[in-house]
Amino acid sequence: MTKLSVAHRAVLCGLVLAMTAVAQCPPPGGYPPPLPPPPTIGGTWTPANPGGPTTPRPAGPSAPRPAGPAAPAPETPKEGPITPRRPAAGLRPGPRTGGMAIDFERGSTSKDRLKVDWVHPVPPQRSAGETSAAGALPLEEAIAQQWDTGDTRPLLVLRECSLCKDGDEALMSRSLTNDRTLLLTKWFRTVRLPSHVTEQSHPFFNLFASLYSTKDGWPHFFLLAYPGAQPVTFTGQQTQTQLWKGMQDVLGQRYAKDPAKATKEWLSVLDGFDVVDARRRQLQEELDATRASEGPDSQKAKRLNEALAKLQIEREELLAREAKVKDLGLLPPPRTVGAATK
After folding, report:
1. Which CATH architecture has domain 110-256?
2. I need a surface site. Which of 105, 116, 187, 227 has the fewest CB within 10 A?
3. 260 contact partners, CB below 8 Å, separation of at least 6
């Protein structure tokens, strides 16, 4: 081995130190980025350092994914605006405490009130052996036959037709609640006549033909405050607002108190009945189940019986309130001469 001189050794040591410094300290501006990997054909390239930056793969068959749980696919939004679901018909949304929806249908007590109390006057015999076939009654007599000696409330007289036989379509709305209308009828004597009242031989033919017919044809029903009063006629195509105004105007001629205010109060009473009926039905079902499982003398059964007794007190209070609301103070009809005229 050739011996190196002191000068050569010094040069070699300097080169080694320089190379070491270069390996430990990056140049100004940092190291240049690594060169891209060589292109591959018909396959995929896997970087040597999985943790480093990923280089886009060339087009070609993709490598199978490693086994494991698949990530959930992102949900595709539906087209169009999202409309919140409405509650089912007859249901009211329940409280946001996890409770069930409350049945919005009227209770049995309210349903008993929300009916028209139709009466069907029977024509009198004209003479011995004669019946309604004797022909139409004079107008004054026909009007008088619509009242009963013990019932002098204002009249609501409706004639049936071939389309609404046994129905109340001419009076009721098909798309809106009719509770207010039905309560207003309670202050009328509601008379229902058959469809063949339009025949000249019918005893009550003159009720519509002589007095209440219009250029647009016969009205479907009319209101009359008292004999000789101005009738209020309706075609059956009226709006609820028009009907309520006509009913309240006629009632105002015969009652001392405001029917509009009383109707609003009565509707509030019906809401109270609905609450009591629903609660009583629920307690009764719970009581029946408790009697079967724990016995009629159990503590739970006693508590349920006490709750039912309190509900009965509430119901009696509502009945007293209702009786007060219904009493508008019927006034006697004024004395008039002759029948009603248009």
Report:
1. 3-Layer(aba) Sandwich (3.40)
2. 105
3. 244, 248
